[in-house]
């Protein structure tokens, strides 16, 4: 998997399908040679050709080593670009040295290969299940002037087209140095008409797809609001402009990090694509003391030569097999009902017990008590930090016992990183709030953020919430985060080091999550941030599911789910049916089935007919949830470009597929076919829409005919089940027809 040609100094990292090749040039720079579809070794006679742009050697900036060899800071494709040298096309890292100068220039020092994986300390990361999963190359570079070492980590996966990169900086200078910028990942590769697909959003508009051509102007995908990727998501796709869902080369880049990040993409003056990904350097600095180490977050670099769907499979498989906690990754998730949308803060013991009764009646597995159960929290102005049950409002033990006596699981909402100015915590520990005391801090949702850069604050708040989770039998926890960081100042750090706060805050957040999952390994976590404001692989490392959006309007949901599915597995999307009047129960239930389903409504307001529908759908959702948890997802039609959203999910053994189609505008008298993907072309499948049996190749090429007049918002679910032959199953289908019609 990792081969080093010591004579020619070429590193060749590859698996069955994918190669990533770079070399150490004669001056000690790491130079990128190739990445993409697997190729054999590159001979040394060719490396000079691809190491440096010839044009760059004509302008007087070349540094000729000998007759046959040339080098240029301005034109070489670096693995780790230098800062303040003749390379002016962006840098991997920038450091203020002990003497105040900033020139940062790393050269090869040594390397080693590890069978298995190394993880970045204190940060969420991809995990290996065994050493067989891949290998790690660590290349140590040394700054040309100072005793500063940079370890570049390259983790290549054996069975997935994934290379994970991160870096570690080590200070051996004997004094403090300051990191001003440090990337997790850099890529320099010749241009191939690239464009970048990114996801941007805000509250209730959680992820929208945007495709932008990569030009010679720097394109920045980032978030800089402290602790979540809401403005833009830390996952992007870089693709050739002709690449589509099922065709062409594309890369996926994603940071396993929930804090400020920045992904930069541009073409340099020689038309090389230059990509950087890592911590956002806008509000970042870090004083690294002698002998200290600094780890960057991991960056996933995934590759496909077969289009976006294939890349999506890689991300979903990576998440389920190597990021989400093993105990939950493939476990069926309970169908839940949440108190927030029906009751907001207005509930009591009787109301929640009634919700439990209703859940039982409707075949729902879990009741979640959302915000409002603690302190004096009857509105959002107060009590964050006061994690004690509001006994006047709710008898928590009684409702939990009641739920469990009916075999209903019980979940609880928390928002541990926050503090309300109006709270006992603020009275007792005003220093715990994270803000610059020289200004009036901006309150968002009337709250401030706790100073999680401090271990004592992490300890305090963990003790507080563990009193609840130790003393009550709670099966699930919704962990929220409802504001961004602003005007940050910590009483424990000198002011000149306040640019470390956002990164340190994330370390504190991850500490809190780590402690929680270690102490309560069986509690299912669902993270949340004003809806889906913190949807990233860093969070998925702790919480197997994430609330996708506070927007439960089905028209918007379909788009938000489609965009989220690009990177994140369907089982990680909390997808609930709400009381939204935009569409009926059937449509909303089908949409929520393609995630981890649940309800956000007051069952006592449902008509008898709606209750019957809910029960029917719950059966269907439970019957097919394993397909969502385990299967391969294929996008068919992109609602950001089309009147339709269509997709299907196929089990790995190709025996079952769930097919989804949704149309926005009504479509009269036009013929429409859903061209299903990923079936076994030679096997027969029974379809639940027309009760017919056709071969896989028929569904994939001719398609399922849905050409009846399609009303606006019409939502179609088709279950395809592999069967042994046509005759037998058509007979079965006829026998089952009436039953099926009742079900769908
Ligand atoms: C956020 C979440 C909601 C709900 C409220 C409670 O907005 O996204 O689902 O939990 O907080 O305050």
Which class of secondary structure composition applies to the elements? alpha+beta
Poorly predicted runs of 5 or more residues: 727-744
- How far is the first residue's CA from the last residue's CA? 49 Å
| Rg calculated over all Cα atoms | 27 Å
Q: How would a textbook summarize the main sheet?
A: 10 strands, antiparallel
Let me know the number of strands: 40
**Overall geometric form:** globular
Bound molecules: alpha-D-galactopyranose
Q: What fraction of residues sit in β-strands?
A: 25-35%
State the helical fraction.
Answer: 10-25%
Number of helices: 15
Overall mean confidence score, pLDDT: 93
Describe what you observe in this structure:
The chain has 744 residues and is α+β, with helices and mostly antiparallel strands. The chain contains 15 helices and 40 strands. Helices cover 23% and strands 31% of the residues. Strands 8, 9, 10, 11, 13, 14, 16, 17, 21 and 22 form a ten-stranded antiparallel β-sheet that branches. Helix 8 packs parallel to helix 9 and helix 12 runs parallel beside helix 13. It is globular, with a radius of gyration of 27 Å. Bound molecules: alpha-D-galactopyranose (GLA). The site of alpha-D-galactopyranose (GLA) has 11 residues, from loops.
């Amino acid at each position: 998997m990792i081969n080093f040609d010591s004579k020619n100094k070429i590193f060749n990292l590859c698996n069955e399908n994918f190669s990533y090749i770079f070399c150490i040039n004669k001056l000690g720079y790491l130079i990128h040679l190739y990445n993409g579809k697997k190729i054999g070794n590159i001979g040394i006679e060719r490396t000079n050709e691809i190491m440096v742009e010839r044009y760059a050697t004509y302008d007087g900036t070349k540094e000729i080593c000998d007759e046959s060899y040339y080098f240029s800071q301005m034109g070489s494709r670096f693995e780790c670009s230098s800062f303040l040298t003749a390379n002016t096309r962006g840098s991997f890292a920038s450091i203020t040295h002990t003497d105040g100068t900033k020139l940062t220039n790393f050269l090869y020092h040594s390397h080693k290969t590890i069978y298995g994986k190394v993880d970045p300390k204190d940060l969420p990361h991809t995990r290996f299940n065994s050493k067989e999963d891949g290998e790690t190359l660590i290349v140590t570079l040394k700054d040309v002037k100072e005793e500063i070492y940079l370890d570049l980590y390259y983790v290549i996966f054996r069975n997935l087209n994934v290379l994970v990169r991160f870096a570690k900086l080590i200070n051996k200078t004997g004094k403090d140095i300051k990191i001003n910028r440090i990337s997790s990942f850099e890529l320099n590769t010749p241009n191939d008409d690239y464009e970048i697909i990114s996801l941007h959003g805000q509250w209730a508009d959680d992820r929208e797809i945007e495709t932008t051509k990569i030009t010679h102007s720097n394109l920045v995908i980032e978030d800089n609001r402290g602790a979540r990727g809401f403005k833009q998501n830390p996952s992007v796709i870089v693709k050739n402009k002709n690449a589509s869902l099922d065709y062409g080369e594309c890369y996926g880049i994603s940071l396993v990090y929930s804090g400020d990040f920045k992904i930069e993409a541009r073409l340099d003056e020689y038309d090389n694509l230059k990509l950087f990904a890592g911590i956002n350097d806008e509000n970042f600095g870090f004083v690294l003391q002698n002998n200290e180490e600094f780890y960057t977050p991991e960056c996933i670099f995934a590759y496909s030569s077969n289009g976006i769907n294939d890349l999506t499979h890689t991300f979903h498989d990576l998440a389920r097999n190597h990021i989400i906690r093993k105990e939950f990754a493939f476990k069926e998730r309970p169908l839940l009902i949440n108190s927030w949308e029906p009751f907001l803060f207005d509930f009591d013991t009787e109301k929640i017990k009634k919700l439990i009764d209703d859940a039982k009646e409707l075949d729902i597995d879990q009741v979640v008590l959302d915000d409002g159960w603690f302190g004096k929290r009857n509105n959002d102005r107060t009590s964050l930090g006061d994690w004690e049950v509001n006994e006047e409002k709710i008898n928590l033990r009684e409702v939990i016992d009641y739920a469990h006596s009916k075999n209903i699981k019980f979940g609880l909402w928390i928002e541990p990183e926050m503090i309300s100015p109006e709270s006992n915590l603020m009275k007792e520990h005003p220093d715990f709030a994270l803000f610059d005391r020289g200004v009036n801090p901006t309150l968002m949702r009337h709250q401030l953020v706790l100073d999680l850069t401090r271990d004592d604050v992490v300890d305090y708040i963990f003790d507080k919430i563990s009193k609840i989770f130790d003393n009550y039998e709670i099966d699930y926890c919704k962990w929220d985060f409802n504001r961004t960081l602003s005007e940050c100042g910590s009483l424990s750090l000198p002011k000149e080091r306040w640019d470390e706060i956002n990164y340190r805050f994330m370390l504190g957040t991850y500490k809190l999550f780590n402690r929680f999952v270690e102490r309560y390994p069986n509690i299912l976590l669902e993270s949340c941030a004003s809806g889906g404001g913190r949807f990233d692989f860093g969070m998925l490392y702790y919480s197997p599911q994430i609330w996708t959006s506070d927007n439960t309007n089905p028209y918007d949901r379909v788009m938000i789910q489609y965009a989220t599915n690009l990177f994140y597995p369907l089982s990680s999307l909390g997808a609930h049916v709400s009381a939204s009047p935009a569409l009926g129960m059937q449509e909303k239930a089908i949409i929520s089935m393609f995630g981890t389903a649940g309800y956000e409504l007051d069952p006592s307001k449902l008509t008898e007919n709606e209750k019957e529908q809910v029960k029917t759908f719950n059966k269907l959702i439970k019957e097919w949830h394993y397909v969502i948890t385990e299967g391969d997802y294929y996008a068919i039609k992109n609602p950001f470009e089309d009147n339709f959203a269509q997709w299907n999910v196929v089990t790995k053994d190709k025996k079952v597929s769930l097919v989804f189609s949704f149309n926005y505008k009504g479509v009269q008298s036009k013929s429409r076919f859903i061209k299903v993907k990923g079936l076994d072309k030679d096997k027969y499948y029974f379809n639940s829409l027309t009760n017919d049996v056709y071969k896989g190749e028929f569904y994939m090429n001719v398609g399922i005919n849905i050409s009846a007049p399609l009303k606006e918002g019409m939502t179609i679910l088709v279950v395809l089940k592999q069967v042994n032959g046509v005759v037998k199953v058509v007979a079965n289908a006829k026998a089952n027809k009436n039953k099926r019609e009742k079900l769908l």
